[in-house]
Amino acid sequence: MPGLDADLDRVVDVVAFQATACAQSSSPLYGRILDAVVADLRTGGVTAELLTGRGDDPVGSALALRFLGSVHRIVLDGRAPDLAAFYPSMGGLSEGDPGPAFLLTVEHHRDEVSRHIDDGVQTNEVGRSAALVGGFAEVARTTGLPLRVLEIGASAGLNLRWDHFAYDTGRVVAGDPTSRVRFERVWEGDPPDLPATFEVIERIGCDRNPLDATTAEGRHTLMSYVWPDQLERFERLDAAIEIARRVPAQVERADAASWVASQLGAAAPGAATVVVHSIVLQYLSHPARQRFRDAVASAGAKASERAPVAWLRMEPGGDRAEIRLTTWPGGQDRLLATAGYHGRPVWWNPSA
User: Fold this and answer.
1) Alpha-carbon distances of 151 from 58, 133, 240, 262, 281, rounded to whole Å
2) Of 117, 137, 158, which residue is a domain's last?
3) Which domain holds residue 105?
4) Within this chain, do residues 276 and 140 fall inside the same structural domain, yes or no?
5) Counting CB atoms within 10 angstroms of each CB, which of 47, 75, 184, 187 has the fewest?
6) 34 and 151 share a domain?
7) What predicted TM-score, i.e. pTM, was given to this entire model?
8) How far apart are CA 269 and CA 284, in angstroms?
9) Which of 62, 82, 117 is the last residue of a domain?
10) Please, which residues have CB within 8 angstroms of residue 110's CB and are 6 or more apart in sequence?
């Protein structure tokens, strides 16, 4: 069937692209696994049965990562000991060929894997705060006002607690110097100019499927999307969840565009409102993305010196993510930095 072949070809292309990306992003384990998935797809194996028909999924929906996360859940549950032997997240070694054990796990749990492939990726990557903190500092410095932080695609809201993390630039330790979530040796070249502390008077977010990271299920879901051979990310995630237990932050179930329009509907004098997101726009449809941008721009047009609005985002820009900041009044847009997709390293733009 020509249509079926074309669909499978698209899936192969998506998985092969992600295999290369993982191998180049310090996850050789996932690179090898996805190479095995590509080979299995081409021979009509179990992965072809599960993934055929998904060739039209938007590239930004991260089909390969959704698939990997659905299997990682099973490994973290202790229900795939042969595969766990390759997963450092379960004490295994990321050496050898994990392909056969991965495919066998998929075969044994195919119904469960099939259900969870449809779940959206929920990384809530805490490391991205190290890339965004310079933008928050810039807004605070230029406005002289406390910050009101609105995050779309907030997942469990861990990055809404960004000011409770420690950022050691070599010149100052900004945020909470005692925090277990600590970033140092993150910046290549000159770091941003950070204050010792930040004043955040409101933190609230939205997500299509918000999680509560303080529950066992919420933590489990977040852990399943962390790449199993990146142990530093697991440690950071656990530390951020500990902070979430004592620092409240509300995450509402809502559409990004409608939620932002509602939040920005009335001015907030005496505070700088910062709309922020990291690796989110790719998960929105084109119409939803445009509605969101229009809502932010509309609020920006009404901004004043006493009620400024800023749009801080970390989104794909090729091999690196770009950290951009638009501020109103004025609508000035700047490229503040580029960074790795999980937040480090960060190349700060000193001319920003």
Assistant:
1) 23, 14, 17, 13, 12
2) 117
3) 2-117
4) yes
5) 184
6) no
7) 0.90
8) 30
9) 117
10) 46, 49, 50
